[in-house]
Amino acid sequence: MSGSEPDAVARWVSRTLSAGNTLAIGTVALGVVAGLAGGDASAPPGAGLAGQIGAGKPASIVALGLLLLALTPIAQLLAAVAAFARQGERRYAAISAMVLGLLVVGIAAAAIFTHAAGG
Amino acid sequence: MLLVPLLTLAFGYSLSSAVGTSLVCVIATAAGAAAHNVRTGRADARLGILLAAGTVVGAFSGGFVAGYLPDRLLAGLFALLMLYTAYTLSRGLGRRGPSEQESDRVDPAARDGADAPEYRGRRRELAVGGSFLAGNVSGLLGVGGGVITVPIVHLVMRAPLHVAAATSNFMIGMTAAAGAFAYLLRGDVDPAIAGPVVLGVAAGSFLGARIAPRINATWLAALFVVVVLYVAFQMAMRAIGAAPG
From the CA of A100, how many Å to the nearest CA of chain B? Predict the structure, then answer.
């Protein structure tokens, strides 16, 4: 390895991943501690993610943390698109944007299927 | 890798709940490791983004297909994956890769151009196709897919092993997120179970990274092969209906 200074891609992507992971795991920990402290740790039976988060219980805080965790790679891709574009690496900015688009379309499709199935 | 069998065999959770929980845990461990690997220049972010195009599409198709497959078939596929993992580990993944001297001269963080590592352009189409397969395995079985992507980057593209492992980690979070959303939105991931498991896995990953340099890697790999073979046997029993499912 060259040991050169990290470029914008390395800086932005690593900071985004660290911040997202810390926020998500911190939120999960808060929910778990609230559940242990006497709150009802169970989620509403048969509820989808929206129902779990909206239930107003410690389990809702954990569900929110899990959602933040799943959103972290999306933030990673947003950071990659911005950093590659800033460095003038159009090819990789386009590939990152394509992967981001695939993820967003796939998640939207999953949400539509879940909604249609009554989840 | 071991979380799905642990949750299903030891705690009796459904396979879909275990797979969803495992995918969320995969994101937690991969994101922490990827942040470190990108910052220190170990991961090739450019190659990782390219291969993630294959793994993300694969993860969606794997997650979609998983909804239509019976638990016993998924258990059988998991048993096969575990056998493949045990085979790969016992064979010694690093033997056919580039030498240490070669890997010292590689800069995975270099931009495309004269300084770009040679492996980045090698057998790229084959690597993207293999990544699609890895994504399918991830979406189907709730694993990171590193068991396939590391050999692809190391043995097919001939990147050094540490670059292959770090680059694989870089894309695992994106792959797992593609699969995880389907399970999360359906409510297959129970926060009461997933919360403590995520915290345990994150703590284990943090401690493991610090303890690992003091542990004999050969003995650790041998122990892991034994555990993986045992789990493969248990999942195979479940697949043929000889174990409770």
Answer: 9
